[in-house]
Design brief:
With about 160 residues, this protein is α/β, with parallel strands linked by helices. It has 6 helices and 4 strands. The chain is globular, with a radius of gyration of 14 Å.
């Protein structure tokens, strides 16, 4: 099983959006049994809160199911439990490494690092633009899944 953890600042906008988009992509490829996908925050600000209404609305608009989710915080022990620990921007990545410690297995990366145009994913909490965030998340999740299907195919079939 391939385990992916998406991480953003509060775990109510970008990381749950990525979690549900990736789950939808995996489900559509009939690979559900081969993946465990979750999300977490680097901060404690939103712990226990549900998915932001803007994220929920955008995913509903796109026909992507939103599961029951409450914000949780990234823990050092997550490093051993996940194959991919994926942040949304460079600030997240710095905080992820602060929490996790070292990254000897190179599990930590940014979602758009898997695309042909690596960049940060803007936080819609501040921008208010869930459309742009969704487009970036979808691009990143498609690229990450393609990477996994190429690099880890022996674990899937």
């Amino acid at each position: 099983m391939i385990k992916i953890l998406f991480v953003c600042h509060g775990n109510i906008c970008r990381s749950p959006m990525s979690q549900f988009v990736m789950q939808d992509l995996v489900n559509k490829k009939n690979l559900t049994a081969h993946f465990y996908i979750d999300s977490a925050a680097t901060s404690t600000e939103e712990l226990g809160n549900g998915v932001h209404y803007g994220t929920r609305g955008k995913l509903k608009e796109m026909g992507i199911p939103v599961l029951n989710h409450r914000a949780t915080q990234l823990k050092r022990s997550d490093y051993d439990q996940y194959d991919y620990i994926i942040g949304m921007d460079q600030w997240n990545q710095r905080n992820m490494l602060r929490i996790l410690g070292k990254d000897p297995e190179h599990k930590v990366s940014l979602l758009l690092d898997f695309t042909s145009h690596p960049r940060d994913i803007a936080d819609p909490w501040y921008t208010g633009n869930f459309d742009v965030t969704f487009d970036d998340v979808l691009e990143g999740c498609e690229a990450l899944l393609a990477h996994i299907l190429q690099e880890d195919s022996d674990r899937l079939y």
